[in-house]
Amino acid sequence: MTSAKESTTTSEGTSAVAKGGSGTITTSQGKTVIADVVVSKIAGLAAREVNGVYALGGGASRAVGALRERIPGASVNHSQGVSVEVGETQAAVDIDIVVEYGVSISDLASGIRRNVIAAIERMTGLQVVEVDITVHDIHVADGSAEESPAGGLTRVE
């Protein structure tokens, strides 16, 4: 089964990943097809391994994920907050994250890129051409979620 692929060239003359489809590794002994969801799960797991990442996904996807985790027997969505484009030999990854307060976002982004690229290239053989990261929020760990901003005193009873 074959699928139509787009072919694009960037201003630097390098070819960009084609939208849609999946990575294909062809050898003299046969063909291996890597689905987009596989690359997405690898990227999600690799991003979560980096210290300073509180969660993956924007507000809506985290809310859906929290509801999903409460359902008995439901599994964790390892590709939450991750979208990928996989071509014949290349992949591009977009990751949405929430960071821990106090962490250097630029250092965290570099660490995520390094970990995601290494994991995908090692496990799939696909060349990762870019990893785009969007920081949606900062998680602030406070001692009490119930305390009001006025130091525990309320204005009304």
UniProtKB/TrEMBL annotation:
A Pfam family reported for this protein in Swiss-Prot or TrEMBL: Asp23
Bias (Polar residues) ranges: 1-14
Region (Disordered): 1-26
UniProt cross-references to InterPro entries, sorted A to Z: Asp23
Transmembrane feature ranges: none
Family: Belongs to the asp23 family.
Protein name: Stress protein, Gls24 family
